[in-house]
Amino acid sequence: IPSNGSENVIAHNTTSLVMQQSSRPTAGTGAWDENLSALANSAQIGNLWSKTAVNGNTIHLISLTGPVGNGGALYNGLDGEPLYYRSTDGGATWDKTNVELPDINAENYIGFAGDAYQIDANGNTVAIVVGGSIANDVLLYKSTDNGENWTKTVVYKHPYFKFTDDTITDTNGDGVADSIRIADGAFAILVDNSGMVHIWWGDMFILNDVAGDAAYSYYYTNAIMQWDETMTEATPIENLGALDLDGDGVLSFMDDGSGGIALGTFPFKGLASYPSAAIDANGNIYLSYTAAVENSSDGDGKSLRHVYVSASKDNGASWADPIDVVTDEFSEGAYGSLARTVDDKVRMIYQRDFCAGISTTGTPPGSTDPCNVGEENEIVYVEIPVSDLGVDVGVPTVNSAKGTISLYPNPTTGLLTVDFKNVTQKEVTVSVTNSIGQVVKEFQHVKVENNKSQLDFTGFE
Predict the structure, then answer these.
(1) How many Å is the maximal CA-CA distance in the chain?
(2) Which residues have C-beta within 8 Å of that of residue 232, sequence separation ≥ 6?
(3) Distance (Å, rounded) from C-alpha 452 to C-alpha 420?
(4) How many angstroms separate the CA atoms of 202 and 186, rounded?
(5) Mean of pLDDT values over 362-374
(6) 230 or 399: which carries more pLDDT confidence?
(7) How far apart are CA 38 and CA 350, in angstroms?
(8) Distance CA 135, CA 167 (A)
(9) Strand-strand pairing, 403-408 and 138-143
(10) Alpha-carbon dihedral sign for residues 423, 429, 433, 437
(11) Rounded distance, CA 153 to CA 237, Å?
């Protein structure tokens, strides 16, 4: 929802084979206008799996040209190319479409996987992470001029250049295939309030010992990896991941019958994956992720996954112990998505059902999972008070060119005192906005006496 109050939904239309923009002038009400031309390109099946970031009235978008495996074709020689789009007027028009990111070309890469990218924006700073998922580096593209120009940073270098299933992972040349560390392609990215970029992803290892068989051995690891622009390399967050619930020092999961772990399949994802990030006005960072649950069972022989949320009050240096948001121990939860802006609550949605894994991927690969086929799924909305994550509730002191403003008591449902330090005005207008920038209450002709005013929030929630 841009600051003009309109509502935009961008999704791929598999009938018309283009990205479709559905919009309406006022969020939450009115008829939808469907636009099939604004985001079109020449890719064989159009662009798929769009991700958006909104700041003010600007919408930033990244999506992927249809890969060959999904019925598409090579685009600029790439089997799936991420492209950038921008609207600076709340989605009314798009002044940048089908923009190629620097150095993403057939000379450097074979192609990119669906959903293996994310985008975020804060002010004029825009950041895109793309890559990982078996074959690629992890790349950061950052713009400090609202998407006009981009700089590239290699966040994590894949051990092999243009890796394919013909590549034997023999890193030491001894004739025996080795496991190699990769990013699993499930990313979260956040531009913090100082403009610094943070990136998270799920960690895992793969091994390929037979050339050309299109099959890899992959190994679960239990880590959410973290990187920001102060780091030379990504590091795991020590207390986030699948939890040792019984405290015996060993993670115990359902046995697949051959000594391995029986989990519902999320292809090429670790024990902890699918991060999502958010931030509050004080700079506290919030992270959700999906992880396997120790000693759980879906009743069909597989361990379950749940969604967890944690918070960092020191820019990612340390994290609160995570909270499990899936209250039903017999349900699986996955794909947690946080509302980017946090006030006194973390708000999120996740998907829940009673079968581990997803229906389209079973064992062996290429089969379906009968437990999931035809079963009911739910999208669940959750609110978590930030105090449950060890974060103090409150709005920070506001600094502006005209002085410093502090508020107390905060939060309140009664009288709020506004202290206008170093402000000379005797009368002001105060606008109250919600977490998406919409004005929800306005106080006009507010008298300032001894640098202070009182605002009545009685009955206002």
Answers:
(1) 81
(2) none
(3) 6
(4) 6
(5) 67
(6) 230
(7) 30
(8) 10
(9) unpaired
(10) negative
(11) 21
CA distance 172 to 285: 40
Q: Can you tell me the distance from the alpha carbon of 420 to that of 405, in angstroms, rounded to the nearest whole number?
A: 5
Question: Which candidate, 412, 322, 339, 436, places its Cα nearest to that of 382?
Answer: 339
Structure-model confidence comparison of residues 439 and 278, the more confident one: 278
CA atoms of 17 and 344, how far apart (whole Å): 42
Return the CA Rg of the chain: 24
* Distance in Å from the first CA to the final CA of the chain: 21
Q: Quote the tokens at residue 310.
A: 């944690």
Q: Which two tokens stand for residue 389?
A: 């994550």
**How far is Cα of residue 356 from the mean position of the Cα atoms in its chain?**
22
Q: How far apart are CA 396 and CA 281, in angstroms?
A: 7
- The 10s digit of each residue's pLDDT in 111-159 is 999 999 999 999 999 999 999 888 999 999 999 999 999 999 999 999 9
Tokens of 63: 């999506």
- Quick one: tokens of 12? 């791929």
| 113/375 Cα distance (integer angstroms) | 27
Contact 113, 130 (CB under 8 A): no
Candidates 313, 256, 248, 259; CA nearest to 287 is 313
Residue 360, both tokens: 């389209």
349, exposed or middle or buried, with CB in 10 Å at 0-12, 13-18, 19+?
Answer: middle
Q: Which residues contact 20 (CB under 8 A, 6 or more apart)?
A: 10, 11, 12, 13, 34, 35, 36, 39
Enter the DSSP assignment of 322.
P
Buried b (16+ CB within 10 A) or exposed e, 125-148: bbbbbbbbbbbbbbbbbbbbebbe
Task: Give yes or no for a contact between 1 and 54, defined as CB atoms under 8 angstroms apart.
Answer: yes
Whole-angstrom distance, CA of residue 304 vs CA of residue 460: 41
Reply yes or no on whether the pLDDT at 399 is more than 60. Answer: no
Task: Give the pTM.
Answer: 0.84
Closest CA to 323 of 237, 383, 238: 383
